[in-house]
Amino acid sequence: MTMNDEFAERAWTIKRLFRKRVARYWKEQRRVWGTVVDGVVLCYLLFPLLIAGVVYAGWWADPPAWMAAGPLWAAQLAPMLLALGARFRTFAEDADVLFLHRSAWRRGLLAYGFGYTAAGLVVPGIVIYAILLPFLMGVHGLGIADVALLFSAAWSVSLAGALWRNRIHGRLRGFRKEACIGGVNVTLILALLLPSFLSGSAQTAAWLGCIGLGAGTAYVLLRGKLRHDGDFASDVALEHAARLSGTALLVRDVVPHKPLVRLDKPLFFRRSQRLFRSDASAVVLAESALKAFLRQWLMLRYWLSFMSLGIFAVSQSPLFAQIALAAGIPLLVNMMVQNHRFNFTGEAFVRQFHWEDSDLRKAGERLRLWLVTPIALVLGAVAGYDSFGLLGIMGGILLSAAYLWFVNHLTAVFGRLRATRRS
C-alpha cells in the first residue's frame, strides 16, 4: 500500500465525522452519569424494576379494574410525551462555520442526523408500546398489526414534530417562536388523539393517514432544512442544550439560585435524648447511627418506599413472586443500612472515639435488625395472608424472622472477612 493510499484510507469523510461525534457524545454522557450511578445505585434501581416486572406480568393475567375501564384514547398519552419531547439531532459544532464550508458536508451531516433521530425514536417507542400491550391487546383486543400501526403513527408524528420545532427555533424568536411551538404541539396531540375516537375501518384509515401525513411532513421539512443555511446558529445552540441536558438534570438541585441559608430541623429526634438504657459501646454506636438514619429525610423516604412498594408488589403477585420479593427486598434494605453504617462510622467525629472492631460489628448487627426487621416481617405477613389466609400470617412472620437472622449473620461474617483482609 502506497503512502497516498494509506492517507486516502484515513481521510475524513462525512460518515466518519458524524460517527466520531456520536461516539464522543455518548462517551460524555456515560462519564456524566457514571459520577452518580454505581453498583449500589444499580441495586436500588433493580428493586423498582423487579416490582414493575411483577406488576406487568399481573396485568396480563388479571388486568386491574382501572385498566379494564380505560378508553382507547388513554393509551395515546404516553406516545404524546414522545412526540412532544423528540429532538432533531444535528451534532453541529461552533467550528463548523469555519471548516465545513462545503455545503455537501453540511447537508451530509444533516442527513445523517435525520437518520439518527429517526432511529433514536424507535427505541423509546418500542418500550412505550411494550408497556401498553396488556391494555391494547388484553383489554381492547387489538392485534399485533394494529399495535404496529399505532407505533408507526406515533413514530412518524414524533419525527415530524422534532423537525418542525427545529425549523421554528431557527427562524423565529421571542413570543412568536413560543406561540408557534405551542401550535405545533397541539397539532401533534390532535393527530395522535383523534383517530382513537373512531372505530372499524375508519379508524384504520385515520391511522394510515396519520402515518402518511407525519412522514410527508418530515420529508418536506427535511428538504427545506437541507436547502436553507440560516439555521446553523440555532442548531449549535440546540446541540449545546442536548449535550448538557444530562448534567442539568443531575445538578438541578445542587446549584442554588440564591445563596440562602436554610436550617432544617429533623422530623425525628430533634434533641439528643437516649433511646436505650444500656451504656455498652455497641449499643451507643448503634443508637447514634439509628438516630442519624431517621433524622435524614432522604434515608427515611427510601426506607418508607421499600416498605410501601414492597407491600403493594407482594399483595399483587402470585406465590412464587411473593417469595422472591419477600426475600429480595430485605436484601436491598440490608445493603442500604450497611452502607449507611459505613458512612456514619467513617465520619471524623465518630472515628475520634476509636471504636473496637467488635463494637463496630455488633453495632452493625443491631442497626440492621432494627431497620430491616419491620420490612421483612411485614412482607412475610402480607405474603402469608394473601396465599394462606389468617393462618399464613404467623408462618410468614416466622419464616421471615429465620431468613432475616440468616442474612444478618451472613453479612456479619462477610464483614469480619473483609476486616481480616484489610488488617
Automatic annotation (TrEMBL):
Keywords: Membrane, Transmembrane, Transmembrane helix. InterPro entries: EcsB_ABC. It holds the Pfam family EcsB. The chain crosses the membrane at residues 32-59, 65-88, 109-132, 144-164, 179-198, 204-222, 306-333, 367-385, 391-414. The keyword Oxidoreductase does not apply. The keyword S-adenosyl-L-methionine does not apply. This is ABC transporter permease.
